[in-house]
Amino acid sequence: MSRLPARFAVFLLAIPTALAVGAARADDPVLAQYKDAVVTKSDFDAYMERVPAHMQREARADGERNEKVVDLIFTNRILAQEARAKGLDKDPVMAKRIEQQVEAFLAQQYTARMEREVPIPPNLEARARELYLVSPERYTEPPRMGLYHILVDLNGRTREMALQRAREIRAKALAGEDFLELAARYSNDPGLKINNGNIGFPSKDELEPPVSEAGFRLKADGEISEIAETRFGFHILKRVGFKPGHVRKFEEVKDTIIEDQIARLRSDVSLKHIDAIRRSPEIRWNAATVASLRTELSQEELEKVRRQAARMKEEEAKAKAMSGSAQKK
Prior knowledge:
The protein has about 325 residues and is mainly α. The protein has helices spanning about 40-50, 55-60, 65-85, 90-115, 125-135, 160-175, 180-185, 190-195, 210-215, 250-280, 285-290, 300-320, and strands at about 30-35, 35-40, 140, 145-150, 230, 235-245, 245. Among the domains are: about 1-85, no CATH class; about 140-245, Chitinase A, domain 3, CATH 3.10.50.40. Helix content is about 50%, strand content about 10%. The chain is extended.
């Protein structure tokens, strides 16, 4: 049997592919083998169980993806064998981590089984219609503005330099130069490679407030906005469309409302089960020992953690706000 292509990257699974290598059966064909490390069709089938049932056929229709899955299982199995040979699974801390991952996976599967077994009452459509009529605002689509976008950031520039550059770009746009070509040449938007300067049809809430104000102030398609300033830099926008807000029809949202009801019924069962366990008089919680696990940080360390958290939050917000991830066309 030939080896799988070596082009696939190695990724370690969050949950071990297998805790022990099982012997192949006659009715379980071998997909890959290296010495005594064997991957069979049942391994592949077990891995694919994580794919929702209604997407199974589509997922298995992708031959390249199937090869990657087999390669992933195979590589993990070989490396896991080597790890056991080195005694990693005998390390007390490692053994605890393996145990916790197995427990987490079993708990997840048990919870999913409980939820699947919840009886679903008939005629949820009537209840869905009630919810729709009582809270129409929940099913109201907000106004959306079609926008092109250019960002001039402050990387390597003073605020004054960035503002001057934004003014020059805006002047070119007002003079009739193609806005998307200007975006390709000048924009520092991290999402430019994805959206090419077209951020789609965001609502007001999907944009930074100054950008939202500048964009939704535009009255006609083709109009260029004033320069808007945010913590990311200076923004220039062009209006290319508008979709007024409206209440979606019941038929459009009916299935979503019913699915939400079913999900809520199922999650209530598992949450109540867990809550009952937590409230059991047989539970013993050593509060003092749990409290002693807390690490004391100096003021300097706390400030460092806060700065790191703030930086990460800002980077995430920048990517989300300006990459067009909220795009709706």
